[in-house]
Amino acid sequence: MGAHAKKAMKKNLKRVSSNKLSQGADFLPLEGGSARKIGEQKPPENTATVLYVSRIPHGFYEKEMEGYFGQFGTIKRLRIARNKKTGKSRHFGYIEFESPEVAKIVADTMHNYLLFEHLLQVFVVPPEHVHSRLWRGFNYRHKPLDYVQIERKRHDKERTLEEHKKMVDRILKHDQKRRKRIEAAGVDYECPEIIGNIHPAPKKIKFDD
Question: Among residues 123, 105, 109, 126, which one has the least CA distance to residue 45?
Fold first, then answer.
């Protein structure tokens, strides 16, 4: 290959490489030449409206949270995680605002905020991380059980004579265990006697039809 042919080949290679860089590169070529201008990248639009709130103190429930966080803006939905069996708060929940800007302000303002000796932890939840069943039953308001009323009803229920006898036997058995524990502890104490078989009949007796 002659010197003229080598010069022509080098010239063609430079032209081809400069064209490729100008068409697909996002940076300036090392050896000069035109390059594609990088367009201005706009920051991603904030559309997150859901907040995750943890370390919620005892007594700060749905009504209190609506009144407190409602000062920042309109709340669409609010939910506190509760125990399915007892209904007690699990001390974390979710709040959805109408405006993404309000949600961001609340997250920035209330994160590590001291409330009733608890540091609130508030984070913005991205829309792609919001579970589809998150707001299922969110408007349910738990009614605490009246255990006193439940126990009163159980205690005052009508019993048959057989059920009453079983209850008395259970009381006597418990009393015997209590006496043995007192004696094992070396305590000189005379326990009052409990009448077992001659225990008075219950006020409410359920007779079989």
Answer: 126
**CA separation (Å) from 1 to 7, 8, 13?**
10, 11, 16
Count CB atoms within 10 A of the CB of residue 64: 12
Structure tokens at 41: 């990248």
- CA neighbours within 13 Å on the CB side: how many for 129? 11
Instruction: Pick the closest to residue 129 from 74, 24, 48, 19 (CA basis).
Output: 48
Burial 177-206 (b: 16+ CB within 10 A, else e): eeeeeeeeeeeeeeeeeeeeeeeeebeeee
Maximum Cα interatomic distance, the chain, rounded to a whole number of Å: 130
Q: Is the pTM of this model over 0.90?
A: no
Q: In the structure, what pLDDT confidence band is assigned to residue 190 with cuts at 50, 70 and 90?
A: confident
Q: Give the closest residue to 73 by CA, choosing from 51, 111, 106.
A: 106
Closest CA to 94 of 78, 108, 71, 105: 78
pLDDT in tens, 110-138: 999 999 999 999 999 999 999 888 888 77
Q: What are phi and psi of 79, to 5 degrees?
A: -145, 135
CB contact at 8 A, 69 and 63: no
Q: Could you tell me which residues are beta bridge partners of residue 93?
A: 53, 80
